[in-house]
Amino acid sequence: xxxxxxxxxxxxxxxxxxxxAWSLAETRMRIVCLEQGGWMAxxxxxxxxxxxxxxxxxxxxxSPNTRQRREDYPVNDDDSPxxxxxxxxxxxxxxxxxxxxxxxxxxxxxxKSLDGVADDWPLDYAxxxxxxxxxxxxxxxxxxxxxxxxxxxxxTLPHVPLGKLGDTLAQGFDRLGWHVWPSDSAIATAEHAxxxxxxxxxxxxxxxxxxxxxxTDVTYWPVAVREGVELRTHCRVREITVGADGLADGVVYxxxxxxxxxxxxxxxxxxxxxxxxPRLLLNSASSxxxxxxxxxxxxxxxxxxxxxxALVTGWFPERLEGYKGPAGCSLISQxxxxxxxxxxxxxxxxxxxxRGDGPVRTALQGLAGKVPWGAEHHAAFSTxxxxxxxxxxICEDLPEEHNTVTLDPALKDADGIPxxxxxxxxxxxxxxxxDHAVARGKEVLEAAGAVETDALSPxxxxxxxxxxxxxMGTDSARSxxxxxxxxxxxxxxxxxxxxxxxxxxxxxxxxxIQALALYIADHIKRNLTTLFD
Amino acid sequence: MDDVLDAILETLIPASxxxxxxxxxxxxxxxxxxRELAAFAALLESGxxxxxxxxxxxxxxxxxxxxLRGFEATQxxxxxxxxxxxxxxxxxxxxxxxxxxxPARPPFPEGYPLEGGxxxxxxxxxxxxxxxxxx
Lengths: 533, 135
Ligand SMILES: Cc1cc2nc3c(=O)[nH]c(=O)nc-3n(C[C@H](O)[C@H](O)[C@H](O)COP(=O)(O)OP(=O)(O)OC[C@H]3O[C@@H](n4cnc5c(N)ncnc54)[C@H](O)[C@@H]3O)c2cc1C
Ligand code: SF4
What we know:
Number of helices of chain A: 12
Shape of chain A: globular
Bound molecules: flavin-adenine dinucleotide, iron/sulfur cluster
CATH class of the domain at 1-141 and 208-301 and 466-528 in chain A: Alpha Beta
Oligomer: heterodimer
CATH topology of the domain at 1-141 and 208-301 and 466-528 in chain A: FAD/NAD(P)-binding domain
CATH superfamily of the domain at 1-141 and 208-301 and 466-528 in chain A: FAD/NAD(P)-binding domain
Order of helices and strands of chain B: HHHHHHH
């Protein structure tokens, strides 16, 4: 029997894989997507259960190392102060993401020209803008038009409600004369494309039982599958193979039954995220590519960027109803986003406001003496429960070659495939930025009326934005893919996830990851006949 | 044994002075505590036996609290372990949620109503003009 050859194989069904699959579907090419996880059932999400807060620390935790579902792969992140957070399923990490959905700014694409650091991107904001707009329609982006931190953009849905907590924090920014704006959020605040509206459950970061949050299993995938894309779940790709002509000719994967399978393809698109993608490329070493597939530059797995995060919390005298509303989405401040030569660091950061904690987390966080057992318990608990609000700080991380994803010499996943190892150091620039941001964060919380503040910097579990490990560029010696995500070394291999970021910006990356995936898909569609010349 | 464990739970989280919050010993969750601490059964049972031996059931609330404080030296790990587990069970109990002014249910499917917010603060932000650099 002749071997089945797909026109396109996409590896990974997360944010990027979904967007590229949907966009390419209109070509009517035969597209197969291989995803190591399965479809999630909304009824399984913790917000259905009385123990929802604890579930977020266990089976729906952020770290694959503690979750240990079969679909997960372990990550050795011992040599990094920031630990990897992800999810492996149809929808990828968008199953857990908070859906904060900002864009990069025009200046983020011109870091070298404007600030003399890192590199400029080989594309600019204007080039990506139509794809941000397209993504906003597909993901359903809630927001408020008129944000002076950006060129004009139109949200598709009304902004996420601020509630008492949001109002309180916004007043703090107002008192200091600082920028603050309702966040762009991939949350259906009104019915959108068959998705039910958000009912303010709160714990979006353990999966949205309502289906209001824009995880790609409820946005792009249903449409892409309807349009003919074949999505094969519980299929873990071990290796991308290369023919004698130096082009990728397919993949080897382990199916749901643990059997090794082969899928041949004319074109391979990798969308496994900033850790999974370099892992796969390094696992695909061959005699033609002894240092890993598409790695003649030696940059696969290098320049890993997270966003160094800090958490600043304030306690207020009054209850704030912080348990209501999307946990990660209400307001953003970009007062300190752009470079200011008067500061001790280049580039900048965003503040994103968080809602408060539920009762179990409040009690657990009080265990270190703030909420003692015994006669004082209730009095202490009531000074804390529903009285906290805060923010995360998202610092731009500059690319540094010593921050890497490599293959761990010993650790393997459930199918015996070598697992990734992270080596990462916080730069001096990041440390100075974090210090500046924590001080400003406390200042604004106090201006909003906080009677006590506290900070955790850096925030260890914040390795959820994974970027830079197969960077874009025009120079094949200094980059892995070109301006259209096409490998310099293997012309029918494309990468569409956060690996290709040149710099990280100081905002959550998913909107940009997807806009890039759509931009790359558009390039593929326009150039199908000459693509591999 | 559950009587003694209930008395321990009540000592860790007693009823609130205003009566809004029930004591942890009154909620019938001793069995849940045992289940959650199955991996620490020896630690749990040793502490419960020590409390029983100390005459916990006939002690006043203050005496019980002193007894548990004394466990720091004699039953290391017992009080923090039980207290932590108790917090996770107590604060999801329907009676406790009602005491906190919350609905006695998980968040889904009803969710919560939430107001849009006061947008007038953003007028000043707009008035200050654009803050992004051109690329
Ligand atoms: C707790 C949390 C909160 C977050 N909050 C936000 C937020 O508010 N805003 C924001 O912008 N971003 C947020 N993120 C990050 C966001 O989820 C990611 O940026 C985004 O999902 C990345 O998209 P991706 O397609 O590159 O990777 P993913 O979405 O991670 O998808 C990759 C997929 O590839 C699959 N895969 C990997 N290797 C293989 C293989 N070898 N074979 C087969 N399949 C494979 C994985 O199973 C996975 O499904 C958050 C992430 C987490 C974990
Ligand atoms: S708050 Fe809204 S988006 Fe978040 S989980 Fe609940 S319904 Fe979904």
